[in-house]
Design brief:
Length: 384
């Protein structure tokens, strides 16, 4: 019988490339080390046979580790320039596991204009276990400093907030965190590692809803956590393994595939979003436009709340729903979708009204998108 060819095992160390575009494709984790396949295959197994009782192998049970997940996590660590990274079953699984670093009596300062799921898990789940949070405008460092208490253990901020797209100065937050011996946790979902790498600016932990730009194709739900130090990596791994909030191998495969086109997708989406934000500024049906100068999401407030329903109903191209960051444009009404779990009074305080629209720009042609929006505006103006 002819023996099968053997392939040298590639080094697990990431390829050192200056260019982000090249690192997306060449991280040291892109090939299967056993066969040389151009992508690490889907290891759809729950357990691994052990060589012996006294000498266990690298993998034993898929919750604790899986070759497909290990390859993806190597890619994620490389992109975020982190000491380690971990793939979770969703963005909220990632956020919730990070919050398990803290104990009853600990206090966090959190972006007030944050994702509704983050607000919900802090106020309705972790508060029951004694974890306290103060929500402030983290685009204002003075407000953050004023909110810090002796028992503050972390700042949890979003690089670009949701849904008003306010920027938070990560180096300024890192300085406040260091001065108070607290961790800096950054949700970088809206910018992705292509536009922002918070660990290089002083963050300790970076979270992504990888469902969004990292995956990019509306076909996978995932989350990621990247950490600054090996010690934090050990803590996050322990929590992930203990709780079991891991990403399955098929989704790991899809996510690693999506990441390869992150830069080319975002370059186009950011360019279109910037032009669309300027176009929206001129529309009489729009009262306010929120755009931070970068990124592929534009939020805007309609002239009247009653225009929201006819506006979204007359759009032809964008999907209507709760997500963002995909190749298709997605229109979201935060009061009904992403922030529906936030109590009505709190939504009102934040200005999350029925007329607030969040528009995630996809890869469609700018002219087609603006024409579609113009027709929907016209219909909404006459109906309302």
């Amino acid at each position: 019988m002819t023996s099968l060819p053997t392939f040298p095992k590639r080094s697990p160390e990431p390829t050192r490339c200056e260019s982000f575009a090249t690192r997306l494709l060449h991280t040291g984790h892109e090939l299967d080390p056993t066969t040389g396949a151009a992508a690490v295959p889907i290891y759809q197994v729950s357990m691994f046979d052990q060589p012996s009782l006294d000498q266990p192998g690298e993998f034993d049970y898929a919750r604790s580790g899986n070759p497909t997940r290990r390859a993806l996590e190597g890619v994620l660590a490389s992109l975020d320039e982190a000491a380690g990274a971990f793939a979770f079953g969703s963005g909220m699984a990632a956020v919730s596991t990070v919050l398990m670093l803290f104990s009853a009596g600990d206090h966090l300062v959190v972006t007030d204009d944050c994702y509704g799921g983050t607000y919900r898990v802090l106020t309705r789940v972790f508060r029951r276990f004694g974890l306290d949070a103060t929500f402030v405008d983290t685009s204002n460092p003075a407000a953050v400093r004023a909110a810090v208490r002796p028992n503050t253990r972390a700042l949890l901020v979003e690089t670009v907030s949701n849904p008003f797209l306010r920027r938070t100065d990560v180096p300024a937050m890192a300085e406040i965190a260091r001065q108070n011996k607290a961790l800096l946790i950054v949700d970088n979902t809206f910018l992705s590692p292509y536009l922002s790498r918070p660990i290089t600016e002083g963050a300790d932990i970076v979270v992504h809803s990888a469902t969004k730009y990292l995956g990019g194709h509306s076909d996978v739900v995932a989350g990621s956590v990247a950490v600054r130090t090996p010690a934090l990596a050990q803590e996050i791994y322990f929590l992930q393994n203990a709780v079991g909030a891991v990403l399955g191998p098929q989704d790991c495969f899809l996510l690693q595939r999506g990441i390869k086109t992150l830069q080319v997708r975002m370059e186009r989406q950011v360019r279109t979003a910037s032009a669309l934000a300027q176009w929206l500024e001129e529309r009489p049906e729009v009262r306010e436009v929120f755009y931070p100068g970068t990124g592929a999401v534009v939020s805007f407030r309609l002239a009247r709340d009653a225009m929201a329903a006819p506006f979204v109903q007359n759009l032809r191209l964008p999907l209507l729903g709760v997500s963002l960051g995909a190749v298709e444009s997605i229109v979201t009404v935060p009061a009904r979708h992403s922030h529906a779990s936030v109590p009505a009074a709190e939504r009102e305080r934040r200005g999350i009204t029925e007329g607030l629209i969040r528009f995630s720009v996809g890869l469609e042609d700018l002219g087609d998108l603006s024409e579609d929006l113009a027709l929907a505006f016209e219909a909404a103006r006459h109906v309302a």
